[in-house]
Design brief:
There is one protein chain. With 219 residues, the chain is an all-alpha fold. It is built from 13 helices and no strands. Helix 7 crosses helix 9, helix 9 runs antiparallel to helix 10 and helix 11 packs antiparallel against helix 12.
């Protein structure tokens, strides 16, 4: 599958004023075409139809090419596109997801990858969870640590509380906003399923004010 038709579609509806607003919102870290989310999803519809999907290997190449593009909409397209192949995820896909987390890293892509791609992967390969997340948590990279904290966001009753607790403990005690926010978000989300566990965890753990505030939101 060629990348050029996708880029041409985005260029045809680009808006410089919106692009500048989007760039400013993302701390001037990335360029944008200036395509808002509803319009982008409309463009994606054709490519995301089951009958138009290529093989997983071709999709992987397309995702890699899109990830190299300067405009952020390309990364949004890429990550949502690869999720279409979650039933076909292979064991080595986790290395690909790790590469995506580490490239052009910011909360907007990392959070999607964590909750959707990595989350789906670990549901399919639960035996890999401890090994991979332990490696990420031992790293100095905040985005890998954030992924280890957030990958269970959609697990609800399937949440492995031992893994969640370990991820929080190994990421806790810093002034890093993106880690403290992630801890709070993970706790807040799980409190919808198991408020007693979250309440007890917050009470017994010395967390940042931000983590407590976020984690206690629904208690």
């Amino acid at each position: 599958m060629e990348i050029s038709p996708i880029l041409e579609k985005f260029k045809s509806v680009s808006n410089e004023e919106i692009a500048l607003q989007q760039k400013a919102y993302m701390k001037n870290l990335f360029s944008f075409f200036g395509v808002k989310s509803p319009q982008r999803k409309e463009i994606q519809k054709f490519y995301f139809k089951k009958e138009n999907l290529p093989s997983k290997e071709e999709a992987k190449k397309l995702v890699s090419e899109l990830w190299k593009q300067p405009e952020r909409e390309c990364q949004y397209f890429a990550q949502e596109y690869y999720l279409k192949f979650k039933k076909d995820f292979s064991e080595d896909d986790i290395l690909f997801f790790e590469e995506l987390v580490l490239t052009k890293s910011w909360w907007d892509t990392v959070d999607f990858i964590a909750a959707n791609l990595v989350g789906s992967y670990f549901l399919k390969f639960p035996e890999k969870r401890k090994e991979i997340t332990s490696k990420w948590l031992a790293s100095e990279n905040i985005w890998l640590k954030r992924t280890a904290i957030l990958f269970q966001l959609k697990y609800r009753e399937k949440t492995d509380t031992e893994l969640l607790e370990n991820a929080i403990h190994l990421s806790n005690g810093t002034k890093e906003f993106f880690l403290n926010k992630a801890i709070g978000w993970a706790l807040r989300n799980y409190s919808k399923t198991n408020p007693i566990w979250v309440k007890e965890f917050i009470e017994k753990t010395e967390l940042s004010n931000l983590s407590v505030k976020e984690g206690s939101k629904y208690l």
